[in-house]
Amino acid sequence: MVIPQTTPILLTRNLLYTGITRAKKMLIIIGAEKTVKYMVNNIDSKKRNTGLMRRLGQV
Q1: H or E segment at 31?
Q2: Distance (Å, whole) CA 59 – CA 43
Q3: What is the pTM of this model?
């Protein structure tokens, strides 16, 4: 999993958790240690307006 130094809004604990839990056999994290630590401590999650429910027909 590549974790670039990017805008903090993308560096969330949820994104890191998703990457870790989707690994099947092995996970190698490539990125700065301070960026990974920031993600672990960043519990801030924003409301996402994806339109998914509309696309699924208001299921």
Answers
A1: strand 30-31
A2: 28
A3: 0.70
Q: pLDDT tens-digit profile of 29-45?
A: 999 999 999 999 998 87
Q: Which amino acid is at 18?
A: T
Domains of the chain: total: 1
Which DSSP state fits 39?
H
State which residues form the domain around 6.
2-55
Backbone CA torsion sign across 45, 47, 48, 52 = positive
- Number of helices (H), then strands (E), belonging to the chain: the values are 3, 2
For residue 47, pLDDT beyond 80: no
